[in-house]
Amino acid sequence: MNKNLLWAMMPLMTACGTQQEPQKPNIIYIMCDDMGYNDLACYGQQYINTPNLDRMASEGMRFTQAYAGSPVSAPSRASFMTGQHTGHTEVRGNKEYWRDVPMIPMGVNQEFSLVGQHPYDPEHIILPEIMKDNGYTTGMFGKWAGGYEGSVSTPDKRGIDEYYGYVCQYQAHLYYPNFLNRYSKSKGDKEVIRITLEDNIQHPQHGEGYEKRTQYSADMIHQAALEWIDNQDGKQPFFGVFTYTLPHAELVQPEDSILQYYKEKFTEDKDWISPDWSRYNTSLHAHAQFAAMVTRLDAYVGEVLNKLKEKGFDKNTLVIFTSDNGPHMEGGADPDFFGHNAILRGTKRQTHEGGVRVPFIAWGPGMVPAGVVNDHQLAFYDLMPTFCELAGVEDYVAKYTNPNKEVDYFDGLSFAKTLTGKEGQQAHDFLYWEFEETNQVAVRMGDWKMVSKAGKPHLYDLSKDVHEDHDIAEQHPDIVKKLVEIAHSQHTESPYFKVTMPEL
What we know:
Elements: E1 26-32, H1 51-58, E2 61-63, E3 66-67, H2 73-82, E4 103-106, E5 109-112, H3 127-133, E6 137-143, E7 162-166, E8 179-184, E9 193-196, H4 217-230, E10 238-243, H5 257-265, H6 286-311, E11 317-323, H7 335-338, H8 353-356, E12 360-363, E13 372-374, E14 378-379, H9 383-390, H10 396-400, H11 416-419, E15 431-435, E16 440-445, E17 448-453, E18 456-461, H12 477-490
Parallel strand pairs: 1-10, 1-11, 2-13, 3-14, 6-7, 6-10
Antiparallel strand pairs: 2-12, 4-5, 7-8, 8-9, 11-12, 15-16, 16-17, 17-18
Helix pairs in contact: 4-6, 5-6
């Protein structure tokens, strides 16, 4: 546990002496990468097969107004981890720490000596630390993006018992990398280490020869996640965070039956040839590649559900599936072809609905009502209070606020009542986003949505204009004023991530 969070640590609950308490549910949170709202068949996708996620939706609850924490990866994950929106959380963009570091040899390649992104605030507790403090064993598999190697915020320092994947999201842009990262208490690791992929490093990381690499990270990470579930003995509740990188670019994967199916389906396809400056390798049959990546991800989810049933955990496990933000347009991706956001405007990096409204499915036999489509408005920062409530943590804000901080923000509202089919769900007065890279601020209040670009506010009525085609700011200055006031009330200055706020 993070030494800087000793102020927050409470004695761990054990099974002894707690017979009067209900059994805590296991929780698995699956977050994929760059999937659009319309990329699953159960959300309307016509070209891509997703039978397992469709079954998960039919056996559970499918949300239609769920929102990512941000329109890009690192801050969206930060919102989930911290329970804070991007006006308050430390990480508000993809600030990189690998730039200008010395290079080191890895096989026939040169690799960055240090990789990773801006760290989470070590003085603010994050979700795995809370779960661990309340008797859960914790595992995370996939993309971290919450700190660079050796920083104050790496999985070993932030409540994770077992980790395997990419500490650095930039490294995750390649599916056949030179190395992955690991922290395993069971294997005796003292800190996050690099695991060299010995076969991959014998071949170039870019261009000709890349196709000879055999160690496919998505499968390796998924197998580690399944092994972790398999190792659970039921004596302690578990909290798993599976941050799969599919279907993020690059659009490359094994030449297997999944990919072959789509190559035959899309007889007229397109190739994407990597320019010299691109991180991504060339993608042949780009439509087939993207569709196969989504179906492969769907197969992973099916294997997770089957493993839970095999172990007898399915009746006491909540599984949530979502995406970290809207769809990308990189490395050969073609959102227009697939209709990623058929009803929504914008893609990744936009605070329009297409950048932040995401698929969100909850599954838990006996816990989550089956076959429900729900329009509750939620955001990633609601997951901390929701998981706390399900785990029996009373008044998590009072328990985990750092008294040494002038203000320690917790922005979420539990939606546990909605998840479990109970009445009395509290609704947000508003949802908030800000994003430095495109200089955007957004507020949703009911059906009103303000998107401010470089300080200029635009207003939409989502009840009539979910595609955000008609800016009605001039017709409703009173509403604009209210939303601008909300934005200013939620924004705190950051030395690292700057946005232009709309004028009051």
